[in-house]
Amino acid sequence: MKNLLLVSYLDIKESIRSKWFYVYSIVFGGLMALFFITGISDSAVMGFTGLSRMLLIFIQVTIIILPIFILITTVKSISADRESNVLEYMLSFPISLKDYYWGKMLGRFLTVFLPVIFALILGVIFGFTKSGDMPWSMIFLYSALLFSMCFVFLGIAFFISTMVKSTDIAIGSAFMIWIFLLAFIDIALIGLMLQGRVGDGFIITSALLNPIEVFRIGAISLFDPELTVIGPVAYYLLDTLGATMLIVYSFVYPIVLGVLFSYFGFIAFKKKDLL
Amino acid sequence: MLVDVKNVTKSFQGTKVLDDVNMQILSGDRVAMMGPNGAGKTTLIRAMLGFYHINSGKILVNGFDPIKQRVKVLEGISFIPQLPPPIKLSLDEMISFISKSSGVPKEAIYEEASKMDLDVKANKHKQFLKLSGGMKQKLLIAIALSKKSSLLVFDEPTANLDPRAREHFYKLLTNLDSSCSTLFITHRLDEIEGLVNRKIYMDLGKIVEDEKI
Ligand SMILES: Nc1ncnc2c1ncn2[C@@H]1O[C@H](COP(=O)(O)OP(=O)(O)OP(=O)(O)O)[C@@H](O)[C@H]1O
Ligand SMILES: [Mg+2]
Predict the structure, then answer these.
(1) More reliable by pLDDT, A224 or A76
(2) Per-residue pLDDT tens for B143-165?
(3) Using CA atoms, how far apart are residues B26 and B178, in angstroms rounded to an integer?
(4) Which of A189, A184, A185, A175 is nearest to A67 (CA)?
(5) Rounded distance, CA A139 to CA A136, Å?
(6) Which domain, by its residues, includes B183?
(7) Ligand 1 pocket test: which of B5, B8, B9, B12 has the largest number of ligand atoms within 8 Å of its C-beta?
(8) Which listed ligand is nearest to B187 at the C-alpha?
C-alpha cells in the first residue's frame, strides 16, 4: 500500500508538470468560462434555465471530448515508459507489479478527474451567484457521471497500454475506439432505425453497451422525456425502463466495465513480458 | 548460490535469443560478461530481473524466482541499465522513490554521489532527464552502490563517463564488500581487468566461454 501511494504520488507530480495536463485543465476550465461569457447561463430556452441549462451543455460537451482526452493521454502511460526504458529502471527496484500498476491507475484517475470536477464546481459556484438556483440532484448526478466516465475510459486506456507494445499503435487504437463509440450514439442509431435494416433489439442493446451513449442517456434522464433534446433511443429507454433505473445503470455499468478492463490490463501486465 | 540459471531458453517472435543457457554465480564472483551485439547479454540480465517470462528452464536469484517473487529478488540486486532512462521526475522525487521502495537512506545516495563529484543537493529540483549524460550515469551508479545488495548488475555502466569519472567509478568498486558479487557487461575488458575474477563470453544466445582469471 505504501508503495502504491508512492507510485501514484509521483505519477501525479509528473502529470502536473506535463503539457497535456495544462491543455486538459484549460479546455475544461475554459469551457465553463466560455459558457459564462456567451451567456448560456442567462438564457431560458427549452424549459431549462440558468445553471441547469449550463450544466446540461457542459456535460453534453464533456461526454464527447473527455473520453478522447483520457484515452490519448493515458494510453501512453505504460507503453511509453516501456519504449523509453523508464519502466525497466523503475521496476528494477523491489516494488510489486500490483503496487506499480494500481498506483499508476490511481494517480492517473486523480489527474483526469480533479480538473473536470473542479470545472463543474466552478460552474456551480458562478451559476449560483448569478441565478440563485441550486439544482442539487443534477449536480450530484453529474459528479457521479464524471466519476464513472473517468473510470471506464481510464480502464480501457490502461488495458490498451499494457496490451500494446508500441506507443503509436496504442494511440491509434485509442482513437479508433473513440470513433467507434461515437458512431453508435443516438444520431447514428436513428439512421439505422429509420432504415429498418436492424431490429429494435439490436439498437437498444448497442445503446446500452456503449458507455458514451449510456452517459448521454444518464445525463438527460433527470428531465422529462418529452423534451426535444432527447434522441429517439434515449426517449425509448427512458420511457420503458424509467428514470431511476437508467440513472443507476448509467453510473454502475461504466464502473463495472472499467473494473473489468483495468483488471484484464493488470493480468496482461503480469503475464506478459514487461519489456 | 547467488544466481542459478538452468537450461534457460527465451525466444522473441520465434527466434531463440537465449538458447539453453546455464550459469551459476557464487557470492564473491566478479564477472565480466562479453560478447558481440545481439548476443543476448541484456536479455539474460532482464530475465534474471524478472522482466521476461522465459520459455523453459529455471532461474533462481538468492533462491527466489524472479517472476513469482520479484520483490524478494530485486531487494538483493542493484541494476544499472545500458542507457540512462529519460525519467521525468526531479532528482529529489526519484531519490525518494528509491529510498522509500528499497529502504536506502537518502543521505547514503548523496554521499556516494559526492564521491564521484556529483552534487545531488544542488540539482535537487532538476529533472533527471535534463542532467548531462555523465551526471545521469553517476547518479545511477551512486544509487546502485548505496543500495546494499548482494549482486550488482551493470549493463555497460561507463559508456558515458569521462576518463576521470571512470577512474573514480573503478575506485569505488575496489572498495566493495568482498561478499558482494558483480556482473558487468562490457565491451572493454582491459578497463575492468583488475576488478573481475571471472570472464563469461556469450554469442548467439549461448555461453561459449566461462573461465576464471
Ligand atoms: N523485447 C524484445 N523483443 C524482440 N526482440 C528482442 C527484444 N529484446 C531483445 N531482442 C533481440 O534479442 C537479441 C539479443 O538482444 P540483447 O539486447 O540481449 O543483446 P546484447 O547482447 O545485450 O547486445 P548489445 O551488446 O548490443 O547490448 C537481439 O537480436 C534483439 O534484437
Ligand atoms: Mg545489451
Answers:
(1) A76
(2) 999 998 999 999 887 777 788 87
(3) 12
(4) A175
(5) 5
(6) 1-76+153-161+178-213
(7) B12
(8) 1
A85 near B CB under 8 A: yes
Per-chain residues with Cβ under 5 A from ion ligand 2: B 42
What is the torsional sign of CA B84, B86, B91, B94?
Answer: negative
Residue B146 belongs to a domain: no
Closest among B193, B179, B183 to B150, alpha carbons compared: B179
Q: Read off the pTM.
A: 0.93
B2 inside domain: yes
Across the interface, do A94 and B72 touch by the CB < 8 Å criterion? yes
Please give the tally of structural domains in chain B: 1
CA R_g for chain B: 17
Q: What is the residue whose three cell numbers read 510489486?
A: A96
Q: Does residue B198 lie within any of the structural domains? A: yes
The cell for A198 is 436492424
Give the tens place of pLDDT for each residue, B20-43: 999 999 988 999 999 999 999 999
ipTM, 2 decimals? 0.94
Report the CATH number that the domain containing residue B71 is assigned in CATH. 3.40.50.300
